[in-house]
Structure formats: C-alpha cells, structure tokens
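Dear H.,

Thanks for agreeing to be a second pair of eyes. The structure we're designing against is below in token form, covering all 181 positions.
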C-alpha cells in the first residue's frame, strides 16, 4: 500500500531542488554579467583614453574618469622595450608582441598570471601601438617621471590626468607640468 505522504515527498523535493537550481543559476548569471560589464568599462575607458591622446594638442591638458578593475594595470611601453623596473612604480612588465617596436599603451589583467611581468604578454585586454606622427613617449609623475604604470584601485575608478608636450605624454595626479613631491 502506498501512503499519501510518500507520494507528496517526491514532487515536493523535486520542486525545492528546481527552485534551488534556478536561484543558483540566476546568481551565477548575474555574477558573470557584472564581470563582463565591469571589464567592458575598462576597455571603453582605454579606447577613450587613446582617442583623447590622439586629439590632444601640444601643451594641452586633459582628464577623464578611468575604469580600471582591481588586478588590472594600465602600462606604457617605449619603442618596444619592456616596462622598466625603476622609479616608485618598479614593476617590470614584458612588452606584448602586438606593440612590436613601437611606443604602446596596454590594458592588462594580472589575475591569471604568476608574475605581473607576464600580464601583458599572456593577458592583454587591449593594446594600442602609436605610429607615425603619434610616436609618443610616456611618463608618469607618480612613478618618478618614468613610464606609465597604474594599478586598478579597489574602487575600480580613478581620475586620470594627462598633458601633451610635443610628442611626450605625461600622466599625473592633477598637477601636470609640475613636479610631484
């Protein structure tokens, strides 16, 4: 003889399992969606920065809100050379092949590499080599005026200030053209 209790338990546990699976799937979808949106903002910021630099006239300054997730870096390379281990921003970063022998800006993800120096070779999200009339050199007042190296802050957004002087682009903390103490 089959009890009513036994027949009710099977559909109830199936419904509870189904609800749990839908909730778990929704949570995973939201996490993946937020991750993609967050990293897309960094790529959009990078593309905007490249456009702003290209439009910048000599002696002109600019600034922008830059989305840079934690564990991402914004780094410059000069004439196809690795980012040096010097100044206060002493992380060595190897130049990716996409830069060739040109000066280049890159947006790189450091999460899935063993050493930060491999980030742009193995996990570059975007790189832009500046050619011809755009053969810029880059410096960062926050890195003892050596090449650009910025890590993503915990908040994921910061204000990036920059100034053009000839073919040199200086990044700074708002006091471009002045030495930062």
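And this is the sequence the design step returned. I haven't edited it by hand at all.
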């Amino acid at each position: 003889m089959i009890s009513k209790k036994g027949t009710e338990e099977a559909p109830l546990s199936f419904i509870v399992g189904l609800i749990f699976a839908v909730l778990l799937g929704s949570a995973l979808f939201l996490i993946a969606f937020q991750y993609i949106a967050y990293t897309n903002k960094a790529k959009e910021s990078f593309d905007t920065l490249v456009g702003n630099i290209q439009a910048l006239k000599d002696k002109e300054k600019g600034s922008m809100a830059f989305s840079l997730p934690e564990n991402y870096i914004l780094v410059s390379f000069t004439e196809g050379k690795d980012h040096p281990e010097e100044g206060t921003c002493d992380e060595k970063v190897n130049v990716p092949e996409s830069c060739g022998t040109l000066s280049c800006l890159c947006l790189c993800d450091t999460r899935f590499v063993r050493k930060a120096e491999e980030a742009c070779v193995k996990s570059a999200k975007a790189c832009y080599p500046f050619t011809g009339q755009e053969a810029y050199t880059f410096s960062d007042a926050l890195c003892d005026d050596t090449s650009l190296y910025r890590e993503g802050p915990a908040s994921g957004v910061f204000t990036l200030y920059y100034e053009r002087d000839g073919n040199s682009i200086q990044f700074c903390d708002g006091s471009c053209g002045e030495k930062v103490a």
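Two observations from my side: Strands lie at 61-67, 72-77, 103-109, 124-130, 137-140, 149-151, 157-165, 168-172. The chain is about 30% helix and 25% strand.

Warmly,
E.
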